[in-house]
Specification:
Eight copies of one chain form a homooctamer. By secondary structure, chain A is α/β, with parallel strands linked by helices. Chain A has two domains: 68 residues, Translation Initiation Factor IF3; 130 residues, Rossmann fold. In chain A, helix 1 packs parallel to helix 2. The interface between B and C is large, with 40 and 42 residues. The complex binds adenosine monophosphate (4 copies) and magnesium ion (8 copies). The site of one magnesium ion has 9 residues of chain F, from loops.
């Protein structure tokens, strides 16, 4: 539970039983677990294992992720907002990984979907919403231009996630990653499809913001 | 003089005398020559050689390019406009290669500089100008997002040039090239820094447009 | 329906129901949809969904692509011809993507297959046909030399599509892409297997040509 | 002056006069400028140009960077601390870029040098200092392991800079970049040698923290 | 049996019968065989074939590897210890390949699991155990920082194995490989997932150590 | 003097004295030496050293190569012809390396320059000459399409040399190399700019042809 | 039937019916066809189709290749020998592709298997056999060192085939390809796994040798 | 002085004064320093600085490396031999880095030069010498096949160094590195040109061997 982030378990490529066992161990020791890149079969085995492990435990599914929580776990509440922005529908599951981490960390999440740069008015229409967040996560595939455009509109730090939604040269997310690293604005980047990491990094910023507010209030 | 495009001579890496001799030969046989990626020294030698070769010949310098023309050469005139757009000042010499080819082919060129995506209002302010062109060339380095944004604003074909102006991962133009190939709008691409090729391709479109207009007029 | 191009839906990797729902939404809002990289199962589900969505709607299959049109949709007609050339039979489905976009945009398409550079007389025999087009699309895999050869024969702009039909070093289309970007003639390039994009770019050129002719006629 | 970050001017590869002119323009319009990757000659020309441009203007040199400020410019002051950590002496100039941005943005900077992972006690000895920062920047070359180790020790967000100080396979910063993107802890990354970007992103976090504190105080 | 290392047979991609036949041939001619990267089905066929080939032969399974030995084979015994260290559970099967080779070569193996660099106290707690080995093998995926940290703690030679357990940029083991090659300490490296090679190289060091001790004892 | 090929000495990056000493040693022991990638200064030092080493020795310069021969060396004569074909003038020095090896091995060389694929009639005009060779070497840069076209015209084996004459993506010869490896005809390839190797391989074919003829004549 | 090489049909990735139809067309027009990279199912469909197409046609299977011949086809006979050498058993199917082409072209083939460089005596034992060939094909995977060693032993031209039999960094044949291109002896190379191309190139050399012998005999 | 290895200082790219100051600091604190990749100018400045720093200090030059030692430093002596083998003369400076480390660590070094695989008898002639070493370092460029051949001949561990002595595809040492990682024998690898690291790793093995012998003697 270091840094307020739930333990992340990457299901991809592991046997369903192994995933379930890693998750229930985390549930028992830390009160929760976040499993990412789950297949339907892995989800079913996990669901059954969670039920067996603790009567009141809940399991919440977010496209390819699942958040498991003990009935005794009390989620913190942060005075901070994270905007999570996607370019297209294919970016959804990656953004969901980020969102579930932020919500679990206690941040307020404002999710803004489908505002890719091919039609600029869609993103420009959302400027005020994005500007009211303390930190912004932007997921985009193909050429990955959206984070640059968003960072040009807001004052808050932007964390960019390249998504592996293209095809051909650079289509596995490498074009988007390289573009984000080359951004002519200020932003920082996580690995391809690393929604979990971006959400966790945004949560750490939200926690720093929240801590500052609480400290100031106490004074 | 195939396709109305001047002979292109890439000076980079050649001895000044070799460049001058290739250019004066082209001058004598086709009435003109376009030399690209010239150093100052190569330019001086070329200038002298052109003077020697033909009394009335002119030499026009465009940043790193030079257009040599015989006094007897008559430039055609096309009923077509090419917009040439750059993201930043470092894209200038590459866009100049494109511009000199288009002008030599007889097209009207509308040059629009410094409208990179980090400040969207600059490009949005130019929408009408760009929309009035028959074909658009866009040069951009770093993440190379500008052609996608322009292609989202106009109806004409967009030809994108990735520029090698970055540093670090993908900074040699590879990030921009990959991003342009992955563009979520419709555009076509030339090689990194290939201003000459983009200008020539735009000229071919301008010639097709001009031909259609003249044919229709004759009918 | 921006730029006269049908909405493109990439089926590859999406559940059949998602593909069908994206396509019927496009059908209802824009009168048509072009679905690319369809499996047989995705096609069956799409076909049923289109039938359900609108009584008179038609669905046309082109190897791995499908064009869906409302009975009320009226296809425009352009005074412009696109030649679409392939090197070999494996380039067929990629060229089909390009062809269906061009036809839907209203251009006349002249399709010339199987004229790869290993037997030059086949392509030389077609010189006159290719020369009579306003814009040329060339799809080629392996070393991707065909677009360069075609661009050496014609006056119209050439748009090259690298095809992922090889094996070994560069066989995923990277050799063809790099070769086309390095072409010693003038041409522009789209991403590997991006038939849709090449067809759309050719349509934009055809529309510019058609617009010029109509404007001239009106004058 | 968007986002409180001084205009960044990359000197590398530009003629000294061009650098000086870009910097004095920024000085006149925004009151300051940060020039990075300066040679000695570029610095001398810049220094003279700044003197000419404004009597009271100051120029501060930080290894390869220079911060130019108008006498009328008032630096803000943020209630937030940025720790800047380096693995070895070769990381110094890159970390300096980050530091000068953070100081100019008004943050308190705590600089901790030469604590690379080959001798763990050096970094462990600094744990308390690093833990008292609101956000941490870590610059490391070769295998780039230091940011992961730091992120395992602190609760604040960590921004990692890969440095191009190696040789052989991956020695141009690519090994460090890939390692940081693969980090098994939570952190975000900027491009190779992009000290300016990392410093600016840390400043944005510091500004968010400061804003939260001031807002809470007002309430 | 050159160099005391069992014949290694890579099962991956071979038909089960071919694997079984290669292994039983090695069993008959050298008294043993080590098969790596076995599927469950390949294991079953191998098990049956070994039984058929020799009555008393044994087969030992180690995650994805299997060691086959004749009843007449006498394992040597070396006066040398190899420590085998892993960063996380996903590194287990690769480390198992190394361990089975070392044990078969006659070395004492001390296996230390799950001491990745994200939580430094776990590896620091094991310093004494690792220090008492004659040679150390370290398997780590993602950013592959563990071998560098271990090499900073011990005096013995360290052999590093990059593991392909990541995702995104460098996730196929390339980030770990590049990082290990760039290590700022002294270590040598084997190919991605090459547990067999690392174990064999460690065995050769153990044999050199053992030989020196025996020679000295005789003198 | 294995295989009838002169000792090849790569001058590039070596001190002039080291080059001269390697060459004179080869001269003394084998009667000749071929030095490639010579600078002007290296050539001058070599020339003087050869004169010093042997009174009657000759040195022949071929663009960047130099062939040194003892007065006592007797060049063999092969009943076989090698055609050496280049796409453009920049391919000259690489083709020269091949030519000097072939001539020194005793083959008849037919050199055909400047027949790149952008203007097909130039190469088609040379069909008969190329067809009368026993083996063909083709050097081409940029997209490297010429060897494929030549191999489609002749019956003899074709050996292709990719030349590093481009710029941008694949411009260092990688595009040409990949294209030649992907050729849809039959040919074999040597490394980028490896004129010496291609000439030597062609000489080995010429020697096999010559040997067959002589053997048959004797019978 | 250009150049005496049977039409090659790459089965991989094509529907069985398409493969069968391409092969029977070639059978009918040229008297034979060589199909490579066949699955078992594709082979069965092909076998049936050949039977249907022509009563007396034969089909010969060589691991993953199949040679189809009309009863009326008369294989030529060349006075030339090709040695085909493999490093290990995994190189077998690739070498088989080469062998079937050479035999069909009429050359005598001498096949030498399993002489990889890890045990030098195996290859040294075969020196005389290899030396008696007119041209040598060598297939090797992993580090691909065998062709260099063979080329050091013989006087005939060596054609090297890199095989994709490794794993990890460079394991897809890229390490072997790069090593062969860098060979410190003289050899030429074909693409990864391109047994067909290597066999065809060796056949062209054999044909040149045979032609020379016959011409000399006639004289 | 951890692990008995002198402090390594990489001179390349550092100002001569910085190199000298790092070296004299190391001299004063640890009694010695090894500076690698020195230019002539850096060497001169270093030499003067060492003289100034300590009257009796010595400086030994080894091609591009220099070993500095205090008069009070006592070199240990190990009962262990390291064979250092090179393929060609260009590998010399890299092997020298390894040799100076090993000698400074106290091992006996047996240096064997110029035994590349193109002429196998040279390496076979040295088999006995190589076999009598406790550990073997092999430096090779181009295709890097020599370490595999050596590892096939000896029982001791082999540490391979890829050298950046080639040109074209893979010529910067990447071909040799990939080939060594793919070796079909057992060996471990260091980064391209990393003679220092290979020598240090060999010294660690030599120290383990020496320790075992001394321990056994005491018992
Ligand atoms: N989707 C994800 N992206 C990145 N890291 C993840 C993800 N899911 C889990 N992790 C992290 O991966 C590591 C788990 O590795 P493992 O021990 O192999 O399960 C932990 O550090 C997790 O926090
Ligand atoms: N800047 C440029 N970019 C791309 N191609 C160019 C450029 N300048 C000249 N060329 C073309 O390069 C070829 C010249 O090749 P070369 O014969 O080597 O000078 C011709 O086809 C020119 O049209
Ligand atoms: N075959 C194709 N190649 C390239 N782009 C396509 C293709 N099919 C659809 N598209 C485009 O991909 C985008 C669809 O993205 P998505 O929202 O993820 O379905 C749209 O811009 C389409 O026009
Ligand atoms: N030639 C070399 N190859 C590899 N590492 C070296 C070399 N020379 C010095 N080093 C190491 O590089 C590090 C020095 O880094 P720096 O602090 O930048 O001088 C130390 O760990 C040295 O042991
Ligand atoms: Mg996007
Ligand atoms: Mg840009
Ligand atoms: Mg092709
Ligand atoms: Mg570091
Ligand atoms: Mg790890
Ligand atoms: Mg060419
Ligand atoms: Mg091999
Ligand atoms: Mg070598």
């Amino acid at each position: 539970q270091r840094r307020g982030i739930p333990e992340g378990i990457l299901a991809d490529g592991k046997p369903p039983e192994a995933v379930a066992s890693l998750a229930t161990t985390a549930l028992e020791t830390t009160g929760r677990a976040l499993v990412t890149r789950l297949s339907d079969e892995q989800f079913r085995v996990l669901e059954a294992a969670v039920e067996d492990a603790e009567a009141g435990a809940t399991i919440e599914r977010w496209s390819t992720s699942a958040l498991v929580r003990s009935s005794s776990y009390e989620r913190p509440s942060l005075e901070a907002t994270v905007a999570i922005v996607t370019a297209g529908t294919v970016d959804g599951p990656v953004a969901d990984e980020a969102q579930v981490v932020c919500e679990d960390a206690g941040a307020t999440v404002d999710r803004i979907d489908d505002v890719g740069v091919a039609a600029l008015d869609r993103i420009l229409d959302q400027t005020d919403r994005i500007r009211s967040a303390d930190v912004v996560v932007v997921a985009a595939g193909r050429e990955g231009a959206l984070p640059t455009v968003v960072a040009g509109l807001v004052d808050a730090p932007v964390i960019a996630i390249p998504v592996s939604s293209g095809y051909g040269h650079g289509g596995d997310g490498e074009a988007a990653l390289a573009g984000m690293l080359q951004s002519c604005t200020v932003l920082s980047v996580v690995n391809i499809d690393a929604g979990f990491v971006a959400g966790a990094q945004a949560s750490l910023v939200a926690r720093a913001v929240d801590r500052a507010a609480r400290t100031a209030e106490r004074e």
